[in-house]
Amino acid sequence: MKTNCKKIISLLLVFVMLFGCSVKITADTGYDETAPVLKSFRVLNPDQMDAKNDGNGIEMEFDFVEEGTGVTDIDVYFENDKGQELEIVFWCGNWKHDPLYTGKTKVEMHVIGDGTKIELGKYKIKYMNICDGNGNYTQVSCDQNPEIWEISTKEVTVVKSDYKEKTDTEPPVIREMKICNAENVNARQTLDVEFDFKEMGSGIHSIDLYCGGNPISSYVFNEWKENQFDGKKRLSFDIVEAQKGENEITEVVITDWADNKTVYNCKSKEWNHFSTKFYVSETVEDPVLNKFQISNPQIAAPNLLYADIDFGGDQKGIEEVCLCLENKDGKQKILSSKNEQPWKQGRHRIAFPISPFWGIGKWKVTSVGLAGVSGKVTWYDKNSQNGDADIAAEFLGTEITILSSYDITYYGSVGNYKTAVSKIKEMKEGQTAVLDCRYSKTARKELFQAIAGKNKILVLEDEDVQWVFRGKDVQWSKCKDVNLETQIMRRAGKDYGYADDRYVLYMEYADNGELPGKVEMRVNYDYLFAKYQTGNQRLILTYYDHGTANVLNENVQVAKDEYAEYKITHNSTYLLSEKNPRLLAPTGIKAVSYRDKQIKLTWSRVAGACGYDVYRSSSSKGTSKKIAAIKGNAKVSYIDKKTKIGKKYYYRVKARGTKAKMKAAYSAKVSCKAVPQQVKKVDAMKRGKRFRISWASVHGCSGYEVFMSTKKNRGYKKKAVTRDVAYMTGRLKKGKIYYFKVRSYKKVKGRKYYGSYSQVIKRKY
């Protein structure tokens, strides 16, 4: 990404009215709402299923009809004659497979789950779930699709697994249970229970407590700890769901790591040895919804859905709000919003990020959920009772319309480029194609060739950014494959030269060199800032290259459609910040004497700096004058050669930004006297009954003084003054330990100025 940002980047804001967008929704246009169609499938190696935990799984061939975002998830479920299940999967996600499109495709399917529980032998396919990139879902089974089953593979044979015969068949036992703090329990704290266990097999996995048939608390042991018990053990249970007043445990369920389970209730003979009642004097408040209202029921994605919410209840606040929506086809989705700091009681405007792949059309609110900091969750829906029902009735059925940001003629996927090229060629002048690039990250050159020189628009759409290529700006000769990998993440502002921003948005595009043509990178700034939990008051765009930040515009206002667009011809790295950059002060500044009468300064590198200014004064309170301007962010040292021997100087350093007016803080002030360097490489070699002391020469000094003692930290006597770099001691006593050190000096007008002492060396005669 070594590019000249001044030549390749210009900032452009385009004002587009959100709600004037017209969106066509047909088979090939708009958002992909069509589920994949499976025509047939077959297992290519049905007699060689590898179900080991790190095994190769099995290879399958699928024949799909899928012209939208592509098949991204396949789950195939098997069952043997004992009722044991086996699941294999294909998943784009972190495995970085390309989606599957129309036609026959061979894929590797991997077994998930615990291979130690999968027996060898034959397994029949029960059903499979197939999902595309937009969540359109198809289930295929023998009963629902006999015509597919008739021509497809029906069973496989597992020949490899990590299966081990179950050796632990004894369920865990609880002999006694005693509640230790049954009186006046605070539900914000824990219920302490002492058990008398017996489990000497695979070890205890979990214990679940129920009150009145409802789960109230669970305790789960760590698998990597020793969980075999034969005796008493005290455990603490969280009981935030407990009711005020008397509570009674009606059931206890204990399981071990071999899936053996024991259930205890009033019918169990051991129940007489269980104390089950406890009194809660103080409960955890339920989060309370006083008011809920959508403020912008029509938006173009990606964008933010805003809701005005009035909270109450939990004194510690609300840490998450969930909003459930449903469309006319019964498809349900959940929006979630979290905040770094909990929302306190009162009225708040909360933003729910809606990605461009949410789904075009109308959605209705079916419920709102609040998660309190104290641990309780409250849902407001059609099943709410009393006052909660009145609150829910006010917002249930509220309609939200999700639009696209474009008038789309063709909607497809970057990975299905042959179909996309065909459709783009069929488009008329002035029309737009939008291609999903979440999973396939390479835009083939044929896509750019299809619009080169024409009045057609190609939009490549990811979760957080859109690439807009206009055919008139695309040159046929420059068309090539383009890597669409993008990293957008939250980073600490101080690490990039923004001392006043807690966080900045970091946007790194793959290094493609020169692109096929000028591209508009569209970033919904409000959406990104809300999604990544940073501020959102104003926008500043910065080009960032190898530690140097170049502010492109310090006072950019976001367009009416809340998108900022910047045109580039090369990819690079950019930062979006809320506040103007202010470079941090260099830290770790040091000043040491250097060579003859010079002083060397060093300091730490400052992120975002393009250079450093060095200042000097001759007194601690004197006025500092700039004595050097260092270019670039690589060099973090300076040698002051214009010094006088024996004189003390005061220094400080300030980072310099790419703009003359960019603020920066001064470093701490350090002082140093111009004296000869410290003597280095001191050594002592035995010569008969003497030692020869030697050292490295110091540039520009007048001579050296040699000191000797029989104590490391005191008693040193000057033994020699010499211009040489060696000294021979007198006769020494056998068996005695001696210490030596040397210093250099510079003589000016009859006065000596000394460097610091060398390191002490120790020798035994």
What's the multimeric state?
single chain
Radius of gyration, taken over Cα atoms and rounded to an integer in Å: 37 Å
Averaged pLDDT, please? 86
Total of DSSP H or I helical runs spanning 4+ residues: 6
Topology:
Elements: H1 5-8, E1 9-12, E2 37-43, E3 49-50, E4 58-65, E5 71-79, E6 85-91, E7 103-112, E8 121-132, E9 137-141, H2 146-150, E10 155-160, E11 173-179, E12 185-186, E13 190-199, E14 204-211, E15 214-220, E16 229-238, E17 245-248, E18 251-256, E19 261-265, E20 277-282, E21 288-294, E22 298-301, E23 303-312, E24 318-327, E25 332-343, E26 346-354, E27 361-372, E28 377-380, H3 386-395, E29 399-404, E30 408-413, H4 417-426, E31 432-436, E32 442-443, H5 445-449, E33 457-461, E34 466-474, E35 482-483, E36 486-492, E37 503-509, E38 514-524, H6 525-531, E39 539-545, E40 548-556, E41 563-570, E42 573-577, E43 582-583, E44 590-594, E45 598-602, E46 611-617, E47 625-631, E48 637-640, E49 648-656, E50 663-664, E51 670-673, E52 683-687, E53 690-694, E54 703-709, E55 717-722, E56 726-728, E57 737-748, E58 751-754, E59 761-764
Explain what the structure shows:
By secondary structure, the chain is mainly β. The strands form 14 sheets. Strands 2, 3, 4, 5, 6, 7, 8, 9 and 10 form a nine-stranded mixed beta sheet that branches. Strands 1-41-38-34-33-31-30 form a seven-stranded mixed beta sheet. Strands 22, 24, 25, 27, 28 and 29 form a six-stranded mixed beta sheet that branches. Strand 8 (121-132) and strand 9 form a beta hairpin. The chain is extended and about 105 Å long. The two termini are 62 Å apart.
